Amino acid sequence: MAEPLLRVDNLVRRYGGITATDNLSMEVVPGELHAIIGPNGAGKTTLISQLTGQVMPNSGTIRFAGRDVTSLPSYKRSRLGLARSFQITSLLKDFSAIDNVALAAQAHDGHSFRFWGNARKETRLRDIARTALERVGLGKRADIMVSQLSHGEQRELELAVALATKPQLLLLDEPMAGLGVTESARMVALLKELRKEVTIVLVEHDMEAVFALADRITVLVYGRVIACDVPDAIRRDEEVKRAYLGEQHAVTRHD
Amino acid sequence: MKPKLNASNVVAALMCAALILLPVYSAATGNIFILTLFTRITIFALAAASLNLIMGYGGMMSFGHAAYLGIGGYAVGILAAEGIGSGFIQWPVALVVSALFALLIGSLSLRTRGVYFIMITLAFAQMAYYVASALSRYGGDDGLTVYKRSDFAGLINLSDRTQFYYLCLGCLFGGLYLIWRIVNSRFGLVVQGVRSNEQRMQAIGFHANRYRLVCFVIAGTICGLAGALLANNTDFVSPAVMYWTRSGDLMVMVILGGMGSLFGPVIGAIVYLLLEELLSQFTEFSGLILGPVLLLIVLFARGGIMGLLGRMRRG
């Protein structure tokens, strides 16, 4: 196996009496799409937030691209090429779509202590932003305020913002959350394209999407890894069925 | 983007034209009072505009902004009292000391958010107030008379009403231009982005507080300039200019005119100080009327007067 791009060792994060991340270790190799699944409350978002530095672990280490990033603040990890999207859409609501993306490009283009020139007229940043917007199918919505975009468009914009930082590793926290059938299909198609260029960690509840996209799947239950394997093996795994997939199937049968 | 022909831009343009032509009107009618009143208004408009930079664009609710008025003023007053009358020394000192004070309180207060930030900035301004009150060599509580206005080696005579008015107006326009450039620059977009969603800005790679601090220092420095002008205008500086109610006045001007709008603080300062002046002729309790006006603005016209105008459509 290739040298891992991301390596997590014995990560622990407690909230009061609850252990949200319980001695968790995992690896992400370059080029793969690594899905993380697990029932609600399994600690998926907590894990992502520790990977990007919004939440600090109680113990354990996170190595990214051969470097220990465990104690680095999130803005520094972003500069190293670690980008995330948020489960609950987190954008600059009173800015236009293209402003959101251009700012992400700006963050990775030297310091921003430039006080004079009009940043909205910097064609280089705008071009990067436009390309990223077109990538996710928002080319025509560039000048619309984020607050005026539909939920689906905001999810796509989240992705464009992450892409504009030219990440080595893209952490996507439920990009399909709240999307309709057509929108979900578009998102899956988009991720299929993106995975050719960038290593992706995908947290997702939509099992169909996960099994269609993932090279490997890690299953989390109560903050612990109970399985990590290729999709077919995960499908057959008895423990996974018991802990998660069975439960999920039971839910779908009710529909 | 070309400026659009909407109500708020028309009002801003008319306002600027009126401010430029005011001395002509004053000379033609012999109305000196209006010139002195508007000199004071332009100075406070500059101070309010600087507060708007951090409060409106940066989302930093500083409740101690009047401290810089005092610091700029005392820099001029103290140097004048010590026999250094040159504006070329006084004014740079006023700016530098204001910047350093902003750096000090900014680096401490920006660790906090929300109510705590408001309280810490307030506490620092009150500390500055009490320090000034304790300066017995420079008048203490009673304040310090500035016997001679800043001397600019014959370039400009600050004791000439018209020249001094145009100096204040020039500083106001210069300050507004600077703020306009800043808010549209890379730096300005970062500061506004942090106001909108700090977590997001960190996640895409910005060290938010570094930008907020620099913005805080720029605003303090501009307000220090307003302080230097104010001391020259009143020929006097006292701890009262730093009192928390003064900071409150500045906040009211910004909110009244429109937070996060370039000309909002100017129109806010004009309306607030004119109302104060007019009402004081009829009643001692001008606050009884000013208070409800502010309440109505906050309740029904978020975005202040400029916000109201912006919503007006043609026809």
TrEMBL record, chain A:
The keyword Nucleotide-binding applies. Pfam families: ABC_tran, BCA_ABC_TP_C. Residues 6-247 form the ABC transporter domain. GO terms for cellular component: plasma membrane. InterPro entries: AAA+_ATPase (IPR003593), ABC_AA/LPS_Transport (IPR051120), ABC_transporter-like_ATP-bd (IPR003439), BCA_ABC_TP_C (IPR032823), P-loop_NTPase (IPR027417). The keyword Aminoacyl-tRNA synthetase does not apply. One of its GO terms (molecular function) is ATP hydrolysis activity. It comes from the Bacteria. Keywords: ATP-binding, Nucleotide-binding, Transport. Involved in beta-(1-->2)glucan export. Transmembrane domains (TMD) form a pore in the inner membrane and the ATP-binding domain (NBD) is responsible for energy generation. This is Amino acid/amide ABC transporter ATP-binding protein 1 (HAAT family). The lineage of its organism: Bacteria, Pseudomonadati, Pseudomonadota, Alphaproteobacteria, Hyphomicrobiales.
From TrEMBL, chain B:
It is found in: Cell membrane. Its main location: membrane. GO terms for molecular function: branched-chain amino acid transmembrane transporter activity. Coiled coil: none annotated. It is a multi-pass membrane protein. InterPro entries: ABC_transp_permease, LivM-like. It comes from the Bacteria. Keywords: Cell membrane, Membrane, Transmembrane, Transmembrane helix. The chain crosses the membrane at residues 36-54, 66-85, 91-108, 115-132, 164-183, 211-230, 250-275, 287-309. One of its GO terms (cellular component) is plasma membrane. This is Amino acid/amide ABC transporter membrane protein 2 (HAAT family). It comes from Bradyrhizobium macuxiense.
